């Protein structure tokens, strides 16, 4: 995987994080000041559920950005395609599928 690929992956992850964070902020703002009993809403998912689901997606997206930052640092240090556990080379196919991975398939 080349630096440009990692930078592109990171930019996509950052865009996803921004979109999810905006969605979460909109849900929070929409429910502020509301005294609706969404726990017993017969229409389906509660506002609290949607808020928590978006919060989890934001956390995951934030972690993806951090993982890709770490991958870029490993690339700069010359350790990017090396398994942190056994030291073997991580196959290109694995890096293409999981650009931020730090382990080979056997160690994962």
TrEMBL record:
Residues 78-108 form the Zinc finger DksA/TraR C4-type domain. Keywords: Coiled coil, Metal-binding, Zinc, Zinc-finger. A zinc finger (dksA C4-type) spans 83-107. Residues 3-30 form a coiled coil. It comes from the Bacteria. Pfam families: zf-dskA_traR. This is TraR/DksA C4-type zinc finger protein.
């Amino acid at each position: 995987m080349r630096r440009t690929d990692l930078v592109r992956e990171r930019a996509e992850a950052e865009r996803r994080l921004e979109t999810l964070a905006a969605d979460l902020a909109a849900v929070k703002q929409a429910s502020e000041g509301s005294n609706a009993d969404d726990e017993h809403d017969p229409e389906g998912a509660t506002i609290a559920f949607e808020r928590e689901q978006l919060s989890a997606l934001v956390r995951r997206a934030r972690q993806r950005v951090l993982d890709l930052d770490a991958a870029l640092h490993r690339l700069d240090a010359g350790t990017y395609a090396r398994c942190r556990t056994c030291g073997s080379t991580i196959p290109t196919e694995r890096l293409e599928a999981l650009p931020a991975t730090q382990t080979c398939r056997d160690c994962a």
